[in-house]
Write a structure and sequence with these properties.
220 residues; alpha/beta; Rossmann fold; 2 domains; 5 strands; 54% helix
């Protein structure tokens, strides 16, 4: 039997949940295993249903998606998290990505793109386009506390080997594995190996966090 991606939906709007359930339920490789109405329910629902991906609204009345993401990603072997939002890049989204969210999608995203986003995140690929990465980097540069983050980021990058650092900087520029391989004259599997080592060494969750760290360090 083909692998089925287990999805948990969390949104306080029942119409949004119904729409997501309908569009995800039409994909043979996706299964909605549970639903929640607030971030306060997320840890219990994850323990109950063991989802691969949590598709969660950022703004909810009691515990928002940001706090719920931070709590989830602090657990051992956490599911991937995609944040749903009605707005574009701002400090809330940055906080979610720093906490380990695998990306975010706008609620008016076409259904086929939402389905594909769930598949990508389940496969370990963040849902963040180069255009959005550039917006994030601009937002980071305007954010408070950049100096203290910069010192910490430079200390973390110093733990990398030269080749790993080159790959990290390329990830920070929003480049794909294929683009990095061509630029640095290495194979795509080698790039993937370097990315995995970077994530392990720096205790990061995904490529988005590498990109934010590289920018904090002033390397992009």
């Amino acid at each position: 039997m083909a692998y089925v991606i287990r999805v948990l939906l969390v949104d306080d709007d029942p119409l949004v949940r119904a729409g997501l359930r309908l569009m995800l339920g039409g994909a043979p490789d996706l299964e909605v295993v549970g639903e929640g109405t607030d971030g306060s329910e997320v840890e219990r629902l994850v323990a109950q249903h063991s989802p691969d991906v949590v598709l969660m609204d950022i703004r909810m009345p009691t515990v928002d998606g940001l706090a719920a993401t931070e709590a989830l990603r602090a657990r051992p072997q956490p599911p991937e998290v995609i944040l749903l939002t009605t707005f574009n890049v701002d400090e809330q989204v940055l906080r979610a990505l720093r906490a380990g969210g695998a990306g975010f999608i706008l609620k008016d995203t076409p259904p086929k793109d939402i389905v594909e986003a769930v598949r990508k995140v389940a496969a370990g690929e963040p849902v963040l386009s180069p255009a959005v990465t550039r917006q994030l980097i601009a937002q980071v540069s305007r954010g408070a506390g950049q100096d203290s983050r910069g010192v910490r980021a430079r200390e973390q990058l110093a733990a990398l080997g030269d080749r790993e650092r080159e790959v990290a900087v390329a990830v920070g520029e929003g480049k794909s594995n294929a683009e990095i391989a061509a630029e640095l004259y290495m194979s795509v599997p080698t790039v993937k190996t370097h990315v995995s080592r970077i994530l392990t060494k720096l205790d990061l969750n995904n490529r988005v966090q590498i990109a934010l760290l590289v920018h904090d360090a002033g390397e992009s």
